[in-house]
Structure formats: C-alpha cells, structure tokens
Task: inverse folding
C-alpha cells in the first residue's frame, strides 16, 4: 500500500511539472494556432539560466525560477515577433521553423554552458523530507505538487473568471468575431504566448529540483508535453491538467510495472487518442 | 501538310527545351566518377538517394498538400527490410530482397494511411508523427530483429547472383543513378497524369473537387501509398549504400530533414526536392569540415532561412529566372 | 535564334552543376595535399549526449602529444579530430572521412559501445587500428582483429567491486540498478558474477531505460539487499539517482561503478555530503599516489587549470600506447606492423603498469575508492588496489 501511495505521489509530482509546461503549449496552440516546438527548449533555457543564478552565483532559488521564466518569455517574444508572426496559420512552416529554432537553441545552450549535466538543486528550505507511511519523501516533490496546484488554480481563474480570460476563450472559438468586437486579439495572443513560455521556463527551474539540468531536456520535455496536449485536449487548462496527471501517473506506475514498454505505449496512446478523439479529452476544436 | 510539320517540330523543340536541363544534369552526374574520387562519389550517391526520398514526399506533400511528419517511417521500413533479410535471415538475393522491401514500405503506408487519413490538418501532422515514432520505439526495443538502438551494420552490397561480379564504389554509384532515373521517370509520369492533376486540384481546393464528384479519400490514400513506396525505394537503396541503419532513420529528425529538402528546393515540382536534397547534404558536408561542432546551429539556421525567405523553394525561384531569360 | 539561346542557357546550367561538384573535389584535394606525417585520427563526441567527454579526451591526447613534441621516431605527427556527435550515423560519416579522405591508419575512438558495434564491420574491413577510450565490449574485441581495448573490457572492468563487496565489506546480498543497454549489462554483469563467485546472492537486477529522468519508481522498488551496485550512462543520471535515493530515504547503501566518471569533479562537489562515505570502483582518479601520477596531474593542471579525470587519463594513455608502439616500429604506422608491436608492449602509466593480451585486452590495475572530505574538498580516496585485471573469456 505504501508503495502505491509513493508511486501515486511521484506520478502527481511528475504530472505537475508536465502541467506547467503543457498548459503553456496548449494555450498557445489554442489561442494562436501555433504549434510551438520550441516550448521544450524554453524549459531547458529556464533551467540553465536558473542553474546559473541559483548554483553558479548562489542567489535565491525563487529568484532563479523567476528569472528563468523571464528569459524564456523574452526569447519566445523575440521568436514570435521576429518569425512566427509572419507564419499565421501556415502549419508546416511553423513546424519547420520552430524545429530549426530548437536546434539553434540547444546548440547555443551547449555553447554557453557546456554540455555537462547539472545535478538537481533546490532552496535550503526544501532540502529536507517528510515522513510518509514509513518512507521519507523529499520536500522538493511536495513543493512541486503545491506549486502545480497553485498555478492550476491561478490559470483556471485567469481563463474563466477574468475579462482577459474571456477574451482568450472567445478568440479561440471565433477569431474574426472577437476581433470584430474591437478586442485587440493580437495583443492578447502575444500576452498568452509570453505567459506560456514564462511558465515553461519557470517549470524548468522548479523541475530541476528533481530532474536536474541538461540540454536534452528540450526534446524530452517537448515530447511529453505534446502527448499531454494531444490526450488532454488543446486550448484548455483543464485538459492540460487532466492530461498531465494521466501521463504522470501512468508513467510512474508504468515504469514500475512495465519497464520495457514506456515509449511504445506513449506513442500508441497518441495514435489512439488522435484517431478516436482528435481534440483530446477536454479540448476545444481548432 | 506543311503546317502540321511546323506544329509538331515546334512542340518537339519545346519539349526538348523543357527536358534539356534534365538531360544535361543526368549527363553530368553520369560522368561524375571521372572527376571525383571514390569517397565523394559516395556523397553524390547519398544526394541522389535522398533526392528520391524527397521526391516521394513531394507527391504527398507538394502535390496533394498533406503535411506528413512521419515520412521517414516508410524510408526506414525499406532500409530495415533489406537489413533484416540479409543479416537476420541470410536472404542475399537482390531479386527477392528489393521487391519485398518496397512492398513492405507500401504495406506500412497502406496501414498507416487508413489510420492517418481519418483526420486532417494539424491532427494529421501529429498522427503521422506519432505513427513514425511508434515504429522507432519498436525498432529500438526489438533487439533480436532490428539490432535495437544501434541498429544493423555490415549490410552487404546487392547480390545479383552474377558470378565473378565484385562491387566497387563506382559501380554502386551507377546503380544508384540508374535507380534514380527510373524513379524520376515513373514519378514524372505519375504527377503529370490525370491522377496527378487531380491531386493538385485537391491541394488547391478540396471542397470543389468533392463537388465535382472525385473520390477525395481514395485519391489521397493512393497518393499516400505511392509516396510511401518510393520512400521505401530510397530506403532500400540507402541500406545498400550506407550498410548501416538504425532507428534514427525512422525518426522525426529524418522526417523533418526530408521535409526541409522539399521546402527548400520547392514543393510541388519534382525537380525542387532534388535541388533541396543536394543543397542540404552539401551544406551538411561543408559544415562538417569547417565548423563541425556548430553543425546543428547551421542546420537550424537553414531551417529558419528556408521557411522565412525561400518559401517557394530555391529551385522554383531559379526556374522562374530561367524562363524569364530570353 | 531561339536554339542558340537555349544552347547558351544549357551550357551555363551545365557549368554551374559541374562547378558545384568540382568544388567538392577542390576542398577534398586542399585538405589531403600535405607532407607525409603520421596521421592519428580521433573520433570523439563534442555534441550529443556525451558531449562533455569529447573535450576531456581531447585534453588528454593533446597533453601527451605536446609532451612528445608532436613527433615520434623522427616523424612528425598530425592529429585529426572529428566530432562523432554521439550518433552512430554521424560517427560513421566522420570515420569514413578520416579513413578514406585523411588516410589515417590509427584511430582513437569511437567511444560508445553501440557505435563501436555499428562501425565495426567497416573499420575491420579498412584495417584501421582502433583504440577504445573507455572499456570495450568484449565481443567487439574478440570478433574483430583491429581493436586495442584500453583500459579493458566492460565485463571485466568492475568485477573487483563484486569481490570487494563480499570480501572486505562483508555483504552477502546485493542488487544492481543500471542503464538498460549493452554497457550496463556488461558492467553490472561483471560485478554480479564476481559477487556470486564468492558466494554472494544477487537479489534483483533493475534495468532503467536510458534517459530516465525520474528514478523514484525504481527506488521505491529497491529490495532489502546489503547494497545496490549502480551504473548509469551519464554523470547526470548518477547524480539524479543519488539525489532521489537520498531524498526518498532509501536505506540500502550505494556502490558506484565507474565512480570516477559518475562522480566526476564538479558533480562530486555539487553532491557533497550526499555521497560522503560512498564507495566505488574505477581505474583512475587523480588522487592516486604514484610518482608518475603526481607528475601527470601537475602537468595537466598547469596546462588546463583543473584536475584530470578518468576520461583524460584514458586518452592520455591511449596516446602513450600509440607513441610507444610507433617507437617500436621505427615510425611505421601500418596496421600489420603497428598492432603486433603494441601487443608486445609493457609500459608504465600514471595509473599503474599496462600490458596486453593477444586479443588486445589491456591488463591494468583497478582501484576501490571512497568519498572523503579532505582539505576542504570532497575527494575520491583510493583504498584498495586490484592488479592485472583480465576478462575470463579471453
């Protein structure tokens, strides 16, 4: 029983990290119709920048998370304004462009920081553990779950209870009509883009407490975020949350029970989900 | 009587003008072994193989307008079939291995096509991606059949069953060139046939074609299979050429690379992908010599430049220039 | 009129294509037109998963070549470096370039076992003398005749830890947790077999997929053994495993194989107290106390400003072996002369004496290390030496 609970907690904490990344990806896809493959790279950039701030310069962990998020957000803004803006609704061009940018981002990161993996790091306050059913469970994971929950609540409130959120949802449903109502949708879209990237970069530092920091994160995280968005649904915070929890928990239990089939089941799940219900469990139509 | 003669000779001249670049190009490729060393013949051979691969993608992407992000799956199936038959089952004869490889690629395309064509747009893109990666995960895990993560090495050159025949790099180069000419000829006829024109119609305006009574799904499906089959041909050649294959050849990085070749060269034309393949592989070659550690950076840059500034394709731009010149 | 224009255009087109192809040839010629030095190729990884190792191997090779003044037996030496990208396809292309274009007959690398397996048929065919940078997979060594396996085979590399665990630490049960690929099976297989040889019992062998970020499902499933022996493909994975192991409060002590890489300098300092007292096995750490090593460490630190790790040492010794072999052949770098000369060598290296078995397996010392805190730094302190390790299948 205790093993079950531990695996469940691991799954939820893993899912929380995924949620932070996938929610941004999902919103960007839903609002702007852009499949942003650089999203995983934003996680990586945030993680490396956060590492520099927290470990290399020894400053506050939370400051590192903030700056990690900001760097990711800023870089994404440049990408959007400089490149993606011109590719509205041109799907394959977006894919190729962002794929190319991922190569550039990963290689630049290696150029600046070197390719060496960094060990997981955290703030002193969270370096202890709590006792759960006879095992000690690291506080970092509990913190991740808490932060994930807070952000989920915040995002839900933002999209469902604020005017901006209403604009975003309206823009996802009917772009022309929304703009026709005089709403500055492009500005809102850029804001969403920035927020999504910020969350990814922020997640990079939060997640580093467990995963550490290395260049391959850009692709590893992207893949999982894509699966979450596909299964959970596009453009919906609830979908991203549901999808992340499903993937996080299945992955944790799957690793423990069926270690050999991890990757295969993920792709199979993607194929099944896309053929049976393309828009995902809670997604909006795009 | 005289008028008919003038007309046919004018058309003949036009056809000659149209095909002349092809003939000249193939002519030069044919004499490559006379002025390039064996190591570089191999490189040009690789360009030719990827040209076939890129042309195959162009059928489904450029002509039919479907964005497939898992095209390397069929390429890889072609390669792996060759590898598995020759190394795991000791079937050496070219006359068995090659048809089976192409058939397997077409078969996989047939199966995947049914699944993928249920959806369209971004979902089609994602599902073709997932299907390709599904094959990758199988290739990685099924060590006994596929050699796992590091793949199969030591694939022999094709065995025609001719006694006393020994392969050299140059002979193999001509073999690849011959295959390319055949493929190009078949694909050319295919895309310029009524079927091919219908595909372009579907790309331009699907609903109109539907109203006109064409079976859209069937056209897309057949194009998908043809596209997969020729990708399989390229894969088969690649296995013989490289003699080493692994899951990377099934992977999304290969799929995006060939997609880049098509877009960079010019989609929806058959010669565009050829030019694109040559450009990408040559850039890779030179980058490997001068800035080896930064190759991924340059590759990324090429992606960005291709998308932002060479959207129509370099070959297309050049051919417009060509036609505009007196 | 029209015909002439068409002809002109065709000629221009033809010239452009020919020029493009010819440019390949020019670059090709440019590079290979040089005086005949001895060409040593190095296929290292500067990009990709193990990209951090490439520069470290390079450092070791260059130090040794500098000490030799880039010449041996009266002939100058040319080192040609290529990036294999930790990818079998890239490595293959680069290997082809080194062999067919640059005409090297001696090659250091490739590093990764799977890449070695992938390239093996080609390298064998081309009669190139290949040196492994870290332990080689024994089948590659045995089935091919063109490899020198320094410091040894993956299977034999860490057997000594199995012996040590039973004999000196008094452990009777053990489990292993390792990366799910060939090297993992060999390294931990060797440890397990050695432990069983002494009478110990292996309770379980966990295999973790490469690239796993979250080890908690495996840690939670850790059995109640006296120790868990680990091998993971990257220092990052080792650091994650240890951190998560400590975080979950798992009681079973960790034995680290490949400890000099798994707990390399920076990672060791970062992990700090988490690994204090941890023991492991490897063929080298800068802390070894031989006069030759102290000289080596001093020279390395003077040139690069940091301590050498196992990677640097292996590359350094590989180069020393090549140079010693070339001394013996009088500068003849051909495969048929150089290989037998090297097999007959007996040389001193910073980590101890080295000789070779007829199949090319190096015979070296292996050491057990313990993490201690000395003079304000965490160090790997050598506490036991096992000499002359070989692969029983040799």
Result:
């Amino acid at each position: 029983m205790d093993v079950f609970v531990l695996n469940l907690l691991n799954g939820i904490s893993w899912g929380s990290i995924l949620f932070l990344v996938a929610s941004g990806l999902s919103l960007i896809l839903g609002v702007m119709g852009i499949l942003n493959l650089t999203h995983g790279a934003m996680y990586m950039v945030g993680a490396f920048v956060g590492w520099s701030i927290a470990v290399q310069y020894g400053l506050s962990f939370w400051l590192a998370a903030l700056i990690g998020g900001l760097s990711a957000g800023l870089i994404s803004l440049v990408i959007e304004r400089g490149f993606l803006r011109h590719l509205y609704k041109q799907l394959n061009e977006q894919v190729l462009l962002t794929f190319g940018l991922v190569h550039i981002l990963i290689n630049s990161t290696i150029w600046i920081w070197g390719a060496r993996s960094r060990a997981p790091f955290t703030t002193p306050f969270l370096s202890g553990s709590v006792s759960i059913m006879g095992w000690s469970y690291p506080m970092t994971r509990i913190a991740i779950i808490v932060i994930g929950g807070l952000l989920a609540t915040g995002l839900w409130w933002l999209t469902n209870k604020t005017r901006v959120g209403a604009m975003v949802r309206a823009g996802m449903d009917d772009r022309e009509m929304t703009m026709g109502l005089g709403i500055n949708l492009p500005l809102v879209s850029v804001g969403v883009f920035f927020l999504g990237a910020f969350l990814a970069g922020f997640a990079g530092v939060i997640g580093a407490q467990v995963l550490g920091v290395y260049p391959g994160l850009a692709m590893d995280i992207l893949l999982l975020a894509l699966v979450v968005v596909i299964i959970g649904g596009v453009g919906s915070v609830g979908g991203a949350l549901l999808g992340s929890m499903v993937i996080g928990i299945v992955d944790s239990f799957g690793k423990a029970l069926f270690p050999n089939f991890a990757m295969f089941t993920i792709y199979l799940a993607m194929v099944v989900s896309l053929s049976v219900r393309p828009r995902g469990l809670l997604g909006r139509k795009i | 009587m005289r008028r008919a003669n003038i007309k046919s000779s004018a058309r003949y001249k036009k056809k000659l003008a149209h095909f002349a670049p092809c003939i000249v190009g193939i002519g030069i490729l044919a004499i490559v072994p006379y002025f390039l060393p064996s190591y570089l013949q191999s490189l040009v051979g690789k360009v030719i193989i990827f040209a076939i691969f890129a042309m195959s993608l162009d059928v489904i992407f450029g002509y039919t307008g479907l964005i497939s992000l898992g095209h390397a799956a069929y390429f890889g199936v072609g390669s792996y079939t060759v590898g598995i038959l020759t190394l795991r089952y000791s079937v050496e004869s070219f006359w068995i291995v090659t048809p089976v490889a192409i058939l397997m690629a077409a078969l996989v395309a047939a199966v995947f096509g049914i699944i993928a064509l249920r959806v369209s747009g971004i979902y089609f893109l994602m599902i073709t991606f997932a299907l390709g990666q599904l094959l990758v995960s199988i290739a990685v895990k099924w060590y006994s059949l596929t050699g796992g993560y590091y793949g199969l090495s030591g694939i022999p050159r094709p065995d025609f069953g001719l006694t006393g025949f020994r392969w050299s790099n140059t002979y193999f180069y001509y073999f690849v060139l011959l295959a390319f000419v055949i493929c190009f000829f078949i694909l050319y006829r295919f895309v310029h046939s009524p079927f091919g024109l219908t595909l372009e119609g579907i790309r331009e305006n699907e609903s109109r074609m539907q109203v006109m009574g064409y079976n859209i799904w069937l056209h897309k499906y057949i194009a998908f299979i043809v596209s997969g089959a020729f990708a399989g041909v390229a894969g088969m050649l690649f296995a013989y050429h490289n003699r080493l294959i692994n899951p990377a050849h099934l992977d999304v990085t290969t799929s995006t690379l060939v997609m880049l070749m098509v877009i960079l060269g010019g989609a929806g034309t058959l010669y565009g992908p050829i030019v694109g393949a040559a450009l990408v592989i040559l850039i890779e070659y030179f980058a490997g010599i001068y800035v080896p550690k930064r190759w991924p950076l340059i590759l990324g840059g090429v992606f960005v430049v291709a998308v932002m500034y060479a959207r129509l394709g370099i070959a297309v731009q050049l051919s417009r220039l060509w036609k505009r010149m007196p | 009129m029209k015909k002439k224009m068409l002809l002109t255009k065709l000629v221009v087109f033809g010239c452009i294509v020919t020029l493009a192809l010819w440019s390949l040839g020019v670059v090709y010629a440019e590079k290979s037109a040089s005086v005949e030095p001895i060409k040593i190729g190095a296929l290292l990884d500067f990009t990709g998963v193990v990209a951090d190792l490439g520069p470290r191997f390079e450092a070791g090779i260059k130090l040794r070549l500098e000490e030799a003044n880039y010449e041996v037996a009266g002939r100058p030496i040319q080192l040609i470096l290529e990036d294999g990208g930790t990818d079998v396809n890239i490595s293959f292309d680069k290997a082809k370039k080194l062999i067919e274009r640059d005409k090297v007959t001696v090659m250091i690398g490739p590093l990764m076992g799977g890449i070695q397996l992938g390239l093996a048929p080609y390298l064998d065919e081309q009669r190139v003398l290949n040196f492994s940078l870290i332990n080689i997979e024994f089948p590659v060594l045995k089935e091919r005749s063109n490899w020198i396996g320094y410091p040894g085979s993956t299977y034999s590399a860490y057997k000594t830890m199995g012996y040590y665990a039973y004999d000196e630490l008094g452990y009777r049960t053990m489990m292993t947790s390792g990366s799910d690929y060939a090297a993992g099976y060999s390294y931990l297989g060797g440890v397990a077999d050695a432990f069983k040889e002494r009478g110990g019992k292996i309770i379980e062998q966990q295999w973790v997929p490469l690239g796993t970020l979250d080890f908690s499902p495996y840690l939670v499933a850790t059995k109640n053994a006296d120790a868990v022996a680990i091998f993971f493909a990257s220092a990052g994975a080792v650091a994650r495993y240890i951190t998560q192991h400590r975080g979950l409060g798992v009681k079973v002590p960790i034995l680290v194989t490949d400890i000099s890489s798994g707990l390399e300098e920076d990672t060791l300092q970062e992990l700090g107290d988490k690994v204090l007292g941890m023991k492991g096995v490897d063929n080298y750490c800068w802390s070894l106390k031989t006069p030759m090593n102290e000289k080596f460490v001093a020279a390395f630190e003077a040139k690069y400003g940091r301590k050498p790790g196992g990677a640097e040492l292996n590359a350094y010794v590989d180069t020393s072996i090549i140079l010693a072999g070339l001394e013996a052949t009088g500068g003849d770098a051909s495969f048929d002369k150089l290989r037998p000369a090297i097999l007959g060598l007996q040389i001193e290296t910073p980590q101890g004496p080295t000789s070779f078995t007829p199949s090319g397996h190096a015979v070296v010392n292996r050491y057990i290390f313990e993490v201690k805190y000395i003079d304000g730094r965490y160090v790997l302190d050598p506490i036991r030496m096992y000499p002359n390790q070989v692969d029983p299948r040799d």
Remarks:
- Chain B has 14 helices and two strands.
